[in-house]
Amino acid sequence: MARETVAHAAEIPPGTNKVVTIRGREIVIFNVEGEFFAFLNKCPHEGAKLCFGVLVGLTDSSGPGDYRFQRKGEMLRCPWHGWEFDLRTGRSRCDPENVKLRAFPVSVGAEQSPPAQPGPYVAETFPVTTVDDFVMVDV
Amino acid sequence: MSTVVLEKLVAKPPAKLGIVDCDIHPSPQSMASLFPFMSERWRTHAETFGVFSPAPFTGHSLFAKSAPSIARRDAWPESGPPGSDLALMQRQHLDLLGIDHGMLTPLSPNPGVERNLDFAAVLASAVNDWQLAEFTDKDKRLHPAIVVPREDPEAAVKEIARCAKDGRYAQLMLRPHGLEPFGRRRYWPVFEAAVAHGLPVGVHAGGYGAYPLTSAGWPSFYIEEHLSTTVGGGPALATSLIFEGVFDRFPDLKVVFIENGFAWIPSVGWRLDRLWERNRAEVPHVKRPPSEYLRSNCWFTTQPIEEPARPADLRQIFDWIGWDRLLFSSDYPHWDSDDPNYMFPIQISSAERSQIMRDNALHVYGHRF
Amino acid sequence: MNMVSPVAVREVIDCDLHIGLTDTDLLMPYLPDYWREQVVTRGIRGLSLAFTRPGAPGSVRPDWRPAAGIAGASLESVQAQALDPFDTRLAIANCLYGGQALLNADQGAAICAATNDWIAAEWLDKDSRLRASIVVPWQLPELAVAEIERWAHDKRFVQVLILVSGDMPLGKRMMWPIYEAAEKYGLPLGFHAGTTYRHAPTGSGWPSYQIEDEASFSQAFQQQLLSLLMEGVFAKFPRLKVVMLESGVTWLPFFFSRIDKLWKGLRMETPWVDRLPSEIVRDQVRFTLQPFDAPRDEDITHKIVDQIGSDRVLLFSTDYPHWHFDGTEAFPPGFDAALRRRMTVDNPLETYTRLSEGLA
Description:
The complex is a heterotrimer.
Chain A: E1 3-8, E2 17-22, E3 25-32, E4 35-40, E5 54-60, E6 68-77, E7 84-86, E8 103-104, E9 106-109, E10 134-138
Antiparallel strand pairs in A: 1-10, 2-3, 3-4, 4-8, 5-6, 6-7, 9-10
Chain B: E1 19-24, H1 40-49, H2 86-97, E2 99-104, H3 117-136, E3 142-143, E4 145-147, H4 153-164, E5 171-174, H5 188-196, E6 201-204, H6 222-243, H7 246-249, E7 255-258, H8 265-279, H9 290-296, E8 298-301, H10 312-321, E9 326-327, H11 350-365
Parallel strand pairs in B: 1-2, 2-3, 4-5, 5-6, 6-7, 7-8, 8-9
Helix pairs in contact in B: 3-4, 4-5, 8-9
Chain C: E1 12-18, H1 33-42, H2 75-83, E2 88-94, H3 105-124, E3 130-135, H4 141-151, E4 157-165, H5 176-184, E5 189-195, H6 210-231, H7 233-236, E6 242-245, H8 252-266, H9 277-284, E7 285-288, H10 298-308, E8 314-315, H11 337-351, H12 355-358
Parallel strand pairs in C: 1-2, 2-3, 3-4, 4-5, 5-6, 6-7, 7-8
Helix pairs in contact in C: 4-5
């Protein structure tokens, strides 16, 4: 696994994403209200490119006719079949245990540093701590 | 189910398996795209009075869909609606997936639903000419379908004859909902013409005409409308064709159920067989058990494919239906389309893949290519 | 063809049996003066529901068809034909007379009420094996609630009966007062195959042949089950049980996969459906056995039952007097002894909790 610099943070304003190819794999980096999350640009369902998805809120409910709109912009709706994924965890809303996005650790900083913790491929949030805003992904 | 994160375990298709895609939706850029194929009188009519839609809105469908224009979000061209840009269709679909033949299934405007029958005839011929000019002439892989004003069977027959002269139309395309159930005798001249010209009849699911989507009236939610296209539409279509005796009257008629789903077929076949066994005195013109007609005269496109909780159950459905009945379709550019590389949740042999992705379709349509 | 030698079923609970109400004159003793006079002066007769097609061969098994009149009209015939031969311990009688289909809601309510009175007096009082569904005037939910409340104390009424195709989809909120009352009194909602013909049987209108109407009922069940699910009836009424009566069974596994697939992408429109719809069905919905809708084939039966994925959802029924089987072997081939036991005893008792009071 190597840490790759993929963009300057300013290139990916909140609510947008950028796609880069690293060693043959398309990685999509999302900016969710200032935090960055990176995933393989492929929906686990039928392979749609996630970069074309829409950022939506998570709507839960206490009962028919009740719409609890929360977490605006933190969910990704796949551009094809509309499955919802939590960008913070990579987990699908419909089957969070079994269906997840393939996530890559992201950090923002001035330069490369040893990864905060190694492996497994579960999305983690990394604190934004440094002055120079380069977005780095461990692939 | 193990964690599904990336490349699904599917057999990669052989390099040169040219796929036949039995459901691709071309769309006019706008109504004006059809004007070159209409007289001035009808251009003016279209601009002034517009096309009839059974929805109560000027600019929206009855139900809000999953996404604008029912489309996958990566299928919007620089300008115009999804399906209107041939270059994008080629790049992201035909070339990308190795599609050798694509059956065009234009949905809108729909001459089967236009209440002004003279205008319906004009719309039909315009859509038929437009398909050739904007798609087939430019990309031989794309095969047009003849659309007709079905509620005026006489005019429909004329349009079929006109288009049949140009040998490139691969099928007659109808919609399941009309003023009367699909197989009713009033529409038989259209079936007769299809058979006479050697054209399969593709019936593309969805839409609605004069009646609510369910026998208890109108449902509330889009998911219910979507279910109606498979569970509601497909079985009703099959039931009407069979019990009206369409296949007895026209034994050579081939009907392709496009986007009607397929998992309902075994159960519906069994139910119709049971009813026919007991009550066939009411329909003496139906000479064979209903399920036999499903095997002899009907084919079914695969999209939207079933995803049973136990993927192996899909193989059982295919076994019950018959592997020779199934035709791959993408439904490009709609949101619920299937990608041929990822759609199968089970391992299938290359012979089985070849059947579904190509051979069966060549059997149905190949003589038109 | 695989035939399993008949397994003796004891203590059978038959969850769908039809008693025949010949005509409105049988209801006269139970009608108030005003309605009695209306019936006589206006000739309000012949309200048997047309969708039942009493003359069609499949509607009545030949050896159950009387020389005159409608099947199941006399207690003696039901006892001799539907109860005794099957060792039936308990049977739930569903009476398909037309109070439910009258457009004048008060008229409908009067006929429904008299029907229930007739059921109690002429059937439940006379054979302790019989139980019944409350026939309700669902044309106007508040009147249906009143009728439920009138019978709630009588534990021999074990279900609320409604037809699958009526004025509006079954899940619509206007129906909810009925579901609330049913849940309150521990009464399952029984949706029975059939129609009041307010709407055409198909989305393309009126088929030519009655056989097509009958074929369409299994689609109606699927669409109406989806309505119940998506409108949130099971979320709102978590203790309510729903029974699909005479719905057909073999469509169920693929209905599950279709609605689960759709829900995964369209969940946001009905966020109160918070888990796979198929799971909700396995928890709260039951289906009677007849008609099974498959060839008599052990392998097919095994596969369908396996694909349904639960031994809790099926309820034994004869669907007397409809012609689904000959003799007394009501089960299609392929149901093993354990599953038969579940279907003839355990599942009915779990679904219709009132039945236990009759088995003491």
